[in-house]
Amino acid sequence: MPSLKRPHWPSILLAYLSLMSLGFLDNTRGPFFPDLILALELSDFNSSLFFVATSVAAVISGFWGAPVLRAWGSLMTLRAGLAAMGLAFVGMSQMTSFMGLLAFAALFGLGFGWVSVAQNVVIWESSPDHRRRQLMSGLHSMYAFAALVAPAMASVLAWMQWTWREGFLVAGLWPLLVLIGSIRLRPLTAARTSSPTPAPTSTSSSTSSSASTTASTTASTSTRAAQNPTPTPQRVTWQALYVSVVISFYMFAEISLGTRLVQYLRRELDYSEVVAPLYLALFFLGLWLGRLSFMLLNTGRWSNQRVMLASAVTSMLAYVLGLIFQQPWLLVSCGLLLGPFYPVALNYVTERFPNSTSQALAFCAGSGSLLVVILHFSLGILTEHFGLHLALFVGPLGLLVPTVFLLMARNPSPDRKEQRASS
User: Fold this and answer.
1) Domains with residue ranges and CATH for the chain
2) pTM value > 0.85
3) Opening angle at CA 186, ends 90 and 70, nearest 5
């Protein structure tokens, strides 16, 4: 069966709503984080374990994402992730002990990892080649939009004098509603299949056949790509490790602002509990607009690598200057500058691994989460010993890593290496 000619909108809508749920829950934690610390009387290091527990569980579910996808399929994996995330936030809203809170934070990380992998695979399965980068950018603009809504909701609840418990409970209902709404949706079977080369299993057929639809625009190149064997796990692992390092250090820069900006404004600049989340909402507004622009605009003439490099350099400068001069508006502007990086990086993964997209995405999610765990520990320790203001400088230092890696990769290009190896 030929590859898709047009997007399969029901599956794409579910992926969009799933990532919106993830973004809403993920960014509900930051605005309520200072109140959670006070309620449970936590130190800066112990409070960082709240994020570490989620990241550790996301590492596990991310590394096991490919086997889970093979066993359950992308749709069932997505539903399982929604259920885990919703139940985790409902459970956290009822916890009075720190250990219980960590247990449910880990459950959230489990669902986080499944959704992070599955929603990208759903988009890959449900979109034609020429629309995939636009739809991937649109997908991750949903995360930024939900992240914009979360701190705005926190400001409203603070004005209503609701606590973090009510905020977590309200947030946990959203993925459960999306899960219920997806019950009638059936898996999109044989969406990315191709006839030239039969495969022993359905999952390998799904991944190997994508070579004929993504390797090139000519029939002869498509045939060669489809007949090439699937790359060995070791080769995919080493190449995906390079990409995952780039993505994970970007993620940490975004996460450091998304989870600590409210705490920074309240502790260092003495902003109120109502005003500080509004700055976080503006940060995520910029993040959403940055990602949405790549869905609406024709950016095909810009390479993925060039877009990522420009995003990393400009946001690193804004981050550093915002901390040096203690200007919240410069920190907020990082959202707009960081916005295009993540969806473009994921599209970069699908281009580099046309024969093994789901495995590469799962590996990037898992190894990226592992590095984020280490960075969260570092941020907690630095905050404990040097204060939050100095600790946040690890954010722009993190952006220096993808900048250097992307500059080093320009000549020779990893994409050209992949093409020479497959030809």
Assistant:
1) 9-181+229-422 (1.20.1250.20)
2) no
3) 80
